[in-house]
Amino acid sequence: MFLDRLKNFKSYKTETTPCRVKLSSNENPYELPEWLKERISEEVKKIPFNRYPDPTSKELKEVIADFYGVKPENIVLGNGSDELIHLLITVVGEINKPVMYPVPTFPMYQVSADILGRPKIEFPLDSNFQLSKKEIDKAIEKNPQLAFFASPNNPTGNTFDKNLIKYTAENNIFTAVDEAYIDFSDKENFLIEALSSDRIVVLRTMSKIGLAGIRLGVLIAREDIAMEIDKARPPFNITYPTQVIGKVVLTEGREEIKKQIEKIISERKRVMNELEKIEKIKVYPSDANFFLIKVPDGDKVHKLLIQEGVLVRNMSHLPMMENCLRVSIGKPEENDFFLNAVKKVIKEI
Ligand code: PMP
Q: What is the CATH class of 46-252?
């Protein structure tokens, strides 16, 4: 009875079938190098595990501020950016006023809005997966107070028109630009706007650049905005290990992260070029560490790829995503394994 509200609720699901090559979760395929793990171990050993962590994550925030070229006061930290999305939907505007976002996109905007019982305005991207001003205008008419734009977008991989995101903010809507994949893009980001506007914030995450396991998301905003949002954050959401590991990796491991990102970007180019040679596959442009393809039969190709030992994300059942699969970039040998598998499978279709 007390939980009736959740009866028809669908929680966030990931693909879990064990496979030799996992290209389904947009992770960084590279592990941290051994020397960096050693350094982490040394620091983790010093943690007083019986004590609560610093609720303000002061030292970690200083390191992250330096990493992004902002001030610690511009930052709110979350247990992954998932938590920050939930926090924004909880605190921005009135809870009975809608949150708007384009579809298809990252499902957590919908999941969090549903958990919190907040109305949603889902508006479609156009056939190139771009924002349409007409659809944004229609959404704005319904008086939303909060908007999410994942740019580059998941699962489509493309970056949205900056002016249309700004246009939403100009229409008095608090606008969160989710830049989870910006490290793989050469397009302009929203940092300058976030630091100067009272209604634009940026979301970043350490998950895509090699630290998905420690759960560390970052919200960047003007100081006064960050300070208000931070009031509603659970006090010890950033664990002691996360604070310590984050500090070590983002200081001593910075060069390593940069190298890994460069390798992923160059592999993205190579793999997409290879796939473009296959007649039956449509490859969509990508600014992220994954890309989307359209195949003749999404369910079948997905299943056959699993039989070949490759797990990708089947998007076929989402609106506008018929027969689409999302493929994360792996290590070169994993990408070769995927390319061989996909060539074989496509021949069988
Ligand atoms: N935003 C987007 C667009 C994402 O794709 C993801 C992860 N799939 C997230 C946020 C959440 O990232 P985190 O691991 O920091 O919770």
A: alpha beta
15-31+255-348 and 46-252 agree in CATH topology: no
Say which CATH superfamily domain 15-31+255-348 falls into: Aspartate Aminotransferase, domain 1 (3.90.1150.10)
Q: Write out pLDDT tens, residues 172-229.
A: 999 999 999 999 999 999 999 999 999 999 999 999 999 999 999 999 999 999 999 9
Calculate ∠ Cα 288-101-150, nearest 5°. 15
Digit-coded pLDDT (tens) for 222-258: 999 999 999 999 999 999 999 999 999 999 999 999 9
Question: Is residue 152 a contact partner of residue 183, using CB atoms and an 8 Å limit?
Answer: no
Q: Any idea where the domains of the chain sit in the sequence?
A: 15-31+255-348, 46-252
Ligand 1 mean position, distance from CA 81 (Å): 6
CB 104 within 8 A of CB 320: yes
pLDDT tens for each residue of 106-162: 999 999 999 999 999 999 999 999 999 999 999 999 999 999 999 999 999 999 999
Token look-up 């999302």 returns 326
Residue with CA at minimum distance from ligand 1 atom 2? 180
Pocket residues for ligand 1 (CB within 6 Å)? 26, 80-82, 106, 150, 154, 178, 180, 205, 207, 212, 217
CA of 177 to the centre of ligand 1 (A): 12
Q: How far is CA 181 from CA 52, 189, 264, in A?
A: 32, 11, 12
The ipTM estimated for the assembled molecules is: 0.99
Q: Atom 1 of ligand 1 has which residue's CA nearest to it? A: 180
